[in-house]
Design a protein that fits this description.
45% helix, SH3 type barrels, 4 domains, five-stranded antiparallel β-sheet, single chain, alpha+beta, Arc Repressor Mutant, subunit A
Length: 320
Amino acid sequence: MAAGTMRLLAVLELLQSRHEMTGAALAERLQVDVRSIRRYIKALQEMGIPIEGERGRYGAYHLDRGFKLPPLMFHEDEAVAVTLGLMVIRALQLPIDSVSAMGVLAKIERVLPEALLSRTLALQETLHVQYAPPHAAAQNSVVKVLLAAMHQGRRLQVTYASWDDKQTERAFDPYGIVFHEGWWYVVGCCHLRGALRTLRVDRIQQTELRAELFVRPADFDAVGQVRQALNQPDGIAAVEVLLLTSFANAQRALPAELGTLEVVADGVMFRRPAYRLEWIAPLLLSLDFPIRILQPPELKTLLRRLSDKARAMSDAADEK
């Protein structure tokens, strides 16, 4: 902890234990000058601590009667940050008990000074977080076990349901949890497949800690692994589109979560799984640079259909 912070806490402890002390007495105890004491007192007052000071050479500082040093102290920006974080947890339906999150907020409110409490309550009343919740809720009990396994470096026994509801048992070393495009994923080493695998957390039916330990690879990129797994899924054809533009332009138009980009001889290759083509086709039409669709054929057919529809709509408008 920084020396300045330690001295602030020391001033508070002294005023609590003696109720009233002069600036000179505080300076002597902390082995600093009186000017530093004034600076510490001002900093504490700005944090909402009710310290009063009497003017004059022999003036003393004292805490309002009944004030108790709380176990946690926040200045305004910190209180706002914590409040916003808890509000986002509630809005996103994160796999954390919402009652617990609100309980934390209530505990914080109980120890905030009056001025800071009023600002925090005003924030809750006037700020609204609108965000798409997860497509499927992850079980809190499952998430707790996953977090415990990653913290302790312990292997898991997992019962997992595939997309067609086939259940498998597997030993799994979890390396990281990722929230991506409305779904929760856990990435790690699957001992059933003998390779890295990305599992949907909502499809984990049951999990428990095993005795075996594992070591998470250094600098493991959980987000990158999820993107790679989703962009190159087993058994699903790929969309391949040649973008006749620079890599920088392609990155601006197609963010990483949509697919992968690779510089090739004729431009930039865009790849992603060939699902949700009805959504990909309009996206490609919106690009302001030339493209060449390599596969799948269904995407070309869909684009022609959209082109015919747009032409018919335009002709109908001209006839009016």
